[in-house]
Amino acid sequence: MNTTVEQPEVVQLPAEEPVVPPARNRRVAAQRVREARDRLTSTSGTRPAFDRELLRQYAQTRQSASYVVMLLVFATGVLFGVTVQPVFAAAWTFGTLLVHGIIVHTCTKYLNEPAFAGSTRKWRVRFVLLDLIYGLCWTTILIHPAGYDLVSSNFMMFMMLLIVAVSSMLASSLPIAAFAATAPVTAAIAVNFIMRGTFDAYILALLAIAAEGYFALLAHRLHSTTLATLEARAEKDALIGELEQSKAISDEARHRAESANVAKSRFLAQMSHELRTPLNAILGFSEVMKSEIFGAHAVAAYKDYSADIHNSGVHLLNLINEILDLSRIEAGRYELNEEAISLVHIVADCHHLLKLRASSRGITIHEIFEQGMPRVWGDERAIRQVVLNLLSNAIKFTPQGGEIWLKAGWTASGGQYLSVKDTGSGIAEDEIPIVLASFGQGSNSIKSAEQGAGLGLPIAKSLIDMHSGTFSLKSKLRIGTEVIITLPPERVMSALAPMVEEAPALQPEDYTDTEPVAATARRLRRSPIMNAGTGL
After folding, report:
1. What stretch of H or E contains 486?
2. CA gap 447, 438 in Å, rounded
3. What is the pLDDT of residues 463-485, one digit of tens each?
């Protein structure tokens, strides 16, 4: 009699690396979210951060179009110098270019300075005043008294429309600046036409005012479109920031979960070794005492106590093995030792092992197996553990006088299946996910006298999943439970294509030295082995 228990294998785990939570990344993501939300908070007509971006767009537009404006000013000065007064036109050109240069310099200075909320109002006032001065410069050349007789009304109207259009487009990001640059010119032209007192002049004045309104509305529309684009970009930045913040939080949680998983694996490996070592002595000596190898007990009850100790030790050892198996499966360290196995034979062996236990409870087990089923490719120990777990559960929860059916056969797709059906108390439909979870137990299991750890079904399901099979549990209260496991057709040995190897051709050295080649061929044709199945 073997009174020793196999020494457990100590699992060596790698040293745990210190997990540094990404708190810095989370703080950076939170800061970005706050900045994006600040850009979406409104205090005045537009949002503060949008005011800064609108001013930057205004400054960039004026800076990029500086040469076009310079060309327009210079061409206007030359034209009026020829038709009006050269000295006045030269002075106006110099003054207007000087104002334009100041505007460009101010825009460049604004773009080079770091943006902060307190400077937005100051820079907006500067730009509006400079555009107002720029518009007044154009007013002086268009309403010069000496040009009344020389410059036609159509030419003045054309120049006014050109200046208003260019100024409105350049300052569309800042509508008040566009109005400051165009309103003086429009007002001067309208007043000039009204002072002429003719019907045509009144019409031209009205057209000038209408043109100013149109371009003002156009500038406002462009400003609204730009603002909507900035809002969409800010919302996108806020969403990206929140996603990064959520990712940082999830990464931190994942690091903590990985750290906890490593600690759990280390704890299980250490505790399994610490628990199995004293179990060797408990199981060994309790078996010696139960068998009364060194003589009968003085008190007969000691034999029963020894049997209880041995049974409790075996139960504790099985529980430790189940916990370790589940831990290895969840960690992805459970390796299958696959070979050709017979599902029917495994089920029959498991039935034989538990038949005495079922008979003691008055439970009848029926076998319904299809004959001639080929072998399947799988891990015999894993499949045997699955069948034992399912059959043990069926016996545990089937009342006395109940029945259990074991069925094995073909699936519709060409695989093989095993069904374990009992007439027990059943499981409520809402408790099925609970019993399939680790350490999960249904209400009937809690009330049962034979309570377990709730690991049998989760381990069985995980092992079947590792074989690429399916695990199905069907149950109804006070009717019974049926568990069906299937193995895919790819694991059935008959589904594997046979390996065909071509016979090697006869070489000259295969012939005997004393027999000609033709005679050898005739001898082979007359051989019964070569003529088998040919009818010759």
Report:
1. strand 480-487
2. 19
3. 899 999 999 999 888 888 999 99
Cβ pair 66, 106 in contact under 8 A: no
Q: pLDDT digits over 307-345, tens only?
A: 888 888 887 887 777 777 777 777 677 788 899 999 999
pLDDT at 495 over 60: no
Same structural domain for residues 241 and 348? no
Residue 312 is inside which H or E element, if any? Answer: helix 301-330
Pairing between strand 364-369 and 403-410? parallel
Domain extent, residue 452, equals 338-495
What 3-state DSSP class applies to 440?
coil
Distance CA 421, CA 50 (A): 70
263: enclosing H helix or E strand: helix 199-291
- Distance (Å, whole) CA 196 – CA 210: 19
Residues 6+ apart with CB under 8 A from 480: 421, 422, 423, 424, 426
In CATH, what number is assigned to the domain containing residue 474? 3.30.565.10
Amino acid at 431: E
Instruction: Write out pLDDT tens, residues 359-370.
Output: 988 999 999 999
Answer yes or no: do 63 and 165 share one domain.
yes
Gap between the Cα atoms of 122 and 120, Å rounded: 6
- H helix runs in 65-118, sequence order: 66-83, 86-112
Same domain, 216 and 81: yes
Q: In this structure, what is the dihedral angle of CA atoms 74, 78, 81, 82, given to the nearest 10 degrees? A: -170
H-assigned helices in 397-516: 432-435, 443-447, 456-466
pLDDT at residue number 516: 47
CA distance 432 to 447: 16
What is the total count of domains within the chain?
Answer: 2
